[in-house]
Amino acid sequence: MELAAWLSLATVCVFGAMTPGPSLIVILKHTIGGSRLHGILASLGQALGVASYATLTVLGLAVVIEQSPMLFNAIRYISIVFILYLAYQSLTAKSALGRLGHDKISVTLWQSFREGLMIAFVNPKLAIFFLALFSQFITTDASFVQNAVMVLTVGGIDLLWYSILACLMSTPALINRLRDNINVVEKITGVALLTVAARVAL
């Protein structure tokens, strides 16, 4: 892949990663509720979920998702249920975070990684996005290396962006202030997730 083409791909991916969405909400939730490491692991899971759709695209399987309304809707409905589940957790009256306070971690590292992975993996619109994006760069004679570079670029940019956010949000002064107001943070998170679920449904 030529440098100019790669820079174009990377630029689109950077702006895509920086666009606020459910991934940002989940990663911030785990950073605040857990630690910097929790946020980074959620970022890693999210990046792997995104990279999985990028891989499906270069393998041609994204076309199957696009052309099969039943499969697309099945994944979409699963994503709605998953997002609603996360919203319910956040809107619970007496949150686990509020009870535990500052000195305990309310989520496991595996849970952070898993929810980061799932929030990306249950979004079939990523397949359509990468199908549109990669069509500008994939050729019939594209090599394995070129395809691998595109997938690694997509996953790497998402991992880097969300890891940076997790590190910034986990600075002691900011994290303590957020935890002091954790009930408010969780309610806002819950409402935001409900909004996301509504958008996915519609």
How does this model look, in words?
The chain has 202 residues and is mainly alpha-helical. It has one domain. The chain has helices at residues 3-18, 22-33, 36-58, 61-67, 69-91, 96-100, 109-121, 125-134, 144-169, 172-180, 182-201. Mean pLDDT is 78; it is low at 95-104.
Topology:
Blueprint (H helix, E strand, L loop, with lengths): L2 H16 L3 H12 L2 H23 L2 H7 L1 H23 L4 H5 L8 H13 L3 H10 L9 H26 L2 H9 L1 H20 L1
Helix pairs in contact: 1-9, 2-3, 2-7, 2-9, 2-11, 3-7, 3-8, 3-9, 4-8, 5-11
Q: Which terms summarize this structure?
A:
mainly alpha, 202 residues, single chain, 81% helix
Number of helices: 11
Please bin the fraction of helical residues.
over 70%
Given helix and strand content, the structural type is mainly alpha
Count of distinct strands: 0
Radius of gyration, CA atoms, in whole angstroms: 18 Å
**Structural domain count:** 1
How much of the sequence is in beta strands? Answer: under 5%
Kindly state the mean pLDDT as a whole number? 78
Shape: globular
Distance between the termini: 37 Å
Could you list the spans in which at least 5 consecutive residues all have pLDDT below 50? 95-104
Main sheet: strands, sense, barrel: none
Q: What pattern of helices and strands is seen along the backbone?
A: HHHHHHHHHHH
Q: How do you describe this structure in short?
A:
The protein is mainly α. It has eleven helices and no strands. The protein has one domain (21-201).
